[in-house]
Design brief:
By secondary structure, this protein is α+β, with helices and mostly antiparallel strands. The chain contains ten helices and 18 strands.
């Protein structure tokens, strides 16, 4: 009863708990809150840990923190790898949305990877409840992504959604509001960044960080053709151990990304091969829908079209598709309860 009363003063939340960014939408016309999924924890001489920064404040600390401070990403591949850090990150985010009001008991709809284990689902639920949620509803990411992309997945027709996230890419076929088939490709956007790091290391003898690789990917990355541009990056020379700068060409970044792009295309083909013929014919009619922040990689739609022979479209605001779909489910909770009543 007391929890329900507190709920009257709380904003219900839809959450896309991603490896690189966490996106939150409250009910109503409010804009999405987007924060890097990063937390910085300092340990004192007695071994006591204290959170000193989260989100955008903690992001610059990655790779730059002193010995007594640890900056980490508690979510990897869409799954919680550090329970305490994830709980503290969520608590900070929820309090920030509610104006740091401690008397908060929101309902939360959280998108989780399809096929997550019971232990992984329990970890997400426990983290949200520890952050103050009075109710936690979990929804598969492919379902949320499809709803956020305005696909009528409640119909008896097949739709193929490719959610290119930060930690992994999920290729899913949906029908009747459920997942018919799904395949996950490890890596996602971070995997592409790592591929650029390896390329620069192997071909230029220069060690760069993942944030630098991400900036290069945004500036020069193209999954279909090489960009006619270049960019200067700075890092540490592996031979001499001193700082050095090199110029990277668009052709290099295109070649570095090719294996990751090919893996997504192969996953799409294998997923389609495993569905019934009727759904396969639906996919031919509807094509492929790309969601997730990684869908903004230049030329990715053209590369997938060439790999599969199917029409490919990028959802509007693809990085917000999952959290937008989760908010739609949040709105449906009251509708369902009214029908029951």
């Amino acid at each position: 009863m007391f929890s329900a009363v507190l709920g009257l003063f709380s904003q219900d939340l839809a959450v896309d708990l991603g490896s690189t960014h966490t996106r939150v939408l409250a009910r109503g016309p409010a804009a999405a809150t987007v924060e890097p999924t990063v937390i910085a924890v300092r340990t004192d001489r007695r071994g006591r840990r204290a959170v000193i920064a989260t989100g955008a404040e903690a992001l610059p600390m990655l790779g730059r923190a002193p010995d007594d401070t640890l900056a980490l990403q508690p979510i990897r591949g869409g799954r919680i790898v550090d329970y305490e850090a994830a709980e503290a990150f969520l608590l900070s985010l929820v309090r920030r949305i509610h104006g740091r009001n401690a008397w908060i008991r929101p309902r939360m709809v959280v998108a989780v990877p399809h096929g997550a284990s019971d232990m992984e689902l329990r970890a997400v639920r426990d983290s949200c409840e520890s952050a103050g949620a009075r109710e936690v509803h979990l929804v598969p990411r492919p379902v949320a992504a499809a709803m956020g992309a305005d696909l009528p997945i409640q119909q008896a027709s097949g739709y193929l959604v490719v959610d290119v996230g930060g930690g992994s890419t999920e290729v899913s076929v949906l029908s009747l509001s459920g997942v018919v088939a799904s395949r996950s490709v490890p890596g996602g956007g971070e995997g592409m960044d790592d591929a650029i790091v390896r390329w620069v290391e192997q071909h230029h003898g220069l060690l760069i960080g993942r944030p630098t690789a991400e900036r290069v990917k945004i500036a020069l990355g193209n999954a279909f053709r090489a960009e006619l541009a270049d960019s200067v990056v700075k890092g540490r020379c592996l031979a001499l151990g001193v700082p050095r700068a090199v110029t990277l060409q668009g052709e290099e970044i295109h070649r570095a990304l090719l294996p990751a792009v090919a893996a997504i295309g192969e996953a799409i083909q294998r997923t389609i091969e495993g569905v019934p013929p009727e759904i396969g014919s639906d996919i031919v009619d509807h094509g492929i829908v790309l969601t997730g922040a990684g869908a903004r990689l230049a030329g990715l739609d053209l590369a997938m079209r060439e790999a599969t022979g199917l029409p490919v479209i990028v959802a509007e605001n693809p990085e917000l598709a999952v959290v937008a779909g989760a908010r739609r489910l949040l709105d449906q909770l009251d509708v369902r309860r009214e029908r029951v009543a």
